[in-house]
Specification:
With 360 residues, the protein is an alpha/beta fold. It has two domains: 7-16 and 259-358, Alpha-Beta Complex (Aspartate Aminotransferase, domain 1), CATH 3.90.1150.10; 17-257, Aspartate Aminotransferase, domain 2, CATH 3.40.640. Helices cover 35% and strands 15% of the residues. It has nine helices and 13 strands. It has helices at 16-25, 44-61, 75-87, 101-110, 226-231, 241-256, 259-280, 305-317, 342-359, and strands at residues 5-6, 67-72, 93-98, 115-120, 144-147, 150-151, 156-157, 168-172, 189-193, 204-209, 297-300, 320-321, 332-335. The protein has a seven-stranded mixed beta sheet. It has a two-stranded parallel ribbon with strand order 1-12. Strands 6-7 form a two-stranded antiparallel ribbon. It is globular and about 60 Å long.
Length: 360
């Protein structure tokens, strides 16, 4: 196999064209004879980059004018704390919809700052499936409702948006952002670590409706205060300039590919190819209901831990990297984010076919 395909769940592969451009500009960005990493974040050139990145991201995701985009640090875990510190008001509690490991982790962190009601939205049974998403009868008891549309560990994706009436809806889209079209106006806050579809680890994007800015409790540290960050253009301290720069290149690259509408079609084709193979195989199995199968993280297993380990080792030797499942679940996981070409999925299926033939 001539090519190496990286199926890591994050940090994930980035578009080759973006990395090549960054390589070319590494020592001489914008004819400055220096790297973008060595340019002041307050300089005219870097501020132009920031302005254009905001514009490009808005165009990509069709973000309304009454939403602010913040480029922050601390990853999604940082937002697990920031959200309750900024959104908890008179009602004093939040509802967390539990669909797997990361939504449960977010709820656990939020309990340090407010009362949390946690609701399991997975149906009982051997197949992972999401229950009804209509919470209009209870949502008004809470300051906000939080959920994770895509659970990277189990490969469960929620395609419908939960119904919460006028209550603020918050979504951790770290592993699904820019993978498919969504209606931003249905959300109060969307947040995402960059290391799946946006760029490298080290920067976190928060899309927040402007009327939600300025509600932080008095004791909120300034770095987690959305109002403070918004007023300082996400620069109350020196930001991760190189990560911001790489995100800006990814945005331009995705726009050239036709935007999110075109990207979604490719992602659907990649996922269908892999799931179709899994469905016809009696050697591998996927335990997620078809309507909740993730476009980004495809989980599967042989049902035998030793055989799973052998699969991962031999796949790695063939240039198919990072297919080992998360330690919480085991098995295998193929993360096929935006930057994964369909050739990578085809190469994986070819290997799976041979492995199945050799190990039946």
């Amino acid at each position: 196999m001539n090519s190496v395909f990286n199926f890591s769940a994050g940090p994930a592969m980035m578009p080759k064209a973006v990395l090549e451009q960054a390589q070319q500009e590494l020592l001489n960005w914008q004819d400055q004879q220096t790297s973008v990493m060595e340019i002041s974040h307050r300089s005219k050139l870097f501020m132009e980059l920031v302005t254009q990145a905001d514009k490009d991201f808005r165009q990509l995701y069709n973000i309304p004018d009454n939403y602010k985009i913040l480029f922050l640090q601390g990853g999604a875990r940082g937002q697990f704390s920031a959200i309750p510190m900024n959104l908890i008001g008179e009602k004093g509690k939040a509802l967390y919809l539990n669909s797997g490991h990361w939504s449960a982790t977010a709820a656990k962190e939020a309990r340090l700052f407010c009362d949390v009601d946690e609701l399991n939205i997975l149906e009982d049974g051997d197949t992972l499936k999401i229950k009804s998403l209509d919470f209009t009868g209870i949502a008004d008891q809470y300051d906000y409702v939080h959920y994770c549309p895509n659970e990277t560990i189990s490969g469960v994706e929620i395609f419908d948006v939960p119904e919460v009436g006028n209550t603020v809806l918050v979504a951790d889209m770290s592993s699904t952002i820019l993978s498919r079209q969504i209606d931003i106006s249905k959300f109060g806050i969307i947040y995402a670590g960059a290391q799946k579809n946006l760029g490298p680890a080290g920067i976190t994007i928060v899309i927040i409706r402007e009327d939600l800015i300025g509600r932080a409790r008095k004791a909120t540290p300034s770095i987690w205060n959305y109002e403070t960050q918004a007023k300082s253009d996400s620069m109350i301290n020196t930001p991760p300039t190189f990560a911001w720069y790489l995100c800006s290149l990814v945005f331009k690259y995705l726009l050239k590919q036709g935007g999110v509408k075109a990207i979604e079609k490719v992602n659907q084709a990649k996922a269908k190819l892999l799931y179709d193979y899994l469905d016809q195989s009696d050697f591998y199995r996927n335990t997620v209901a078809k309507e909740n199968r993730s476009l980004m993280n495809v989980t599967f297993t042989t049902g035998n831990d030793e055989l799973n380990a052998k699969f991962v080792a031999e796949a790695t030797a063939c240039g198919l990297q990072a297919l080992k499942g998360h330690k919480v679940l085991g098995g295998m996981r193929a993360s096929i984010y935006n930057a994964m070409p369909i050739e990578g999925v085809k190469a994986l299926i070819a290997f799976m076919q041979k492995f199945e033939q050799d190990n039946k």
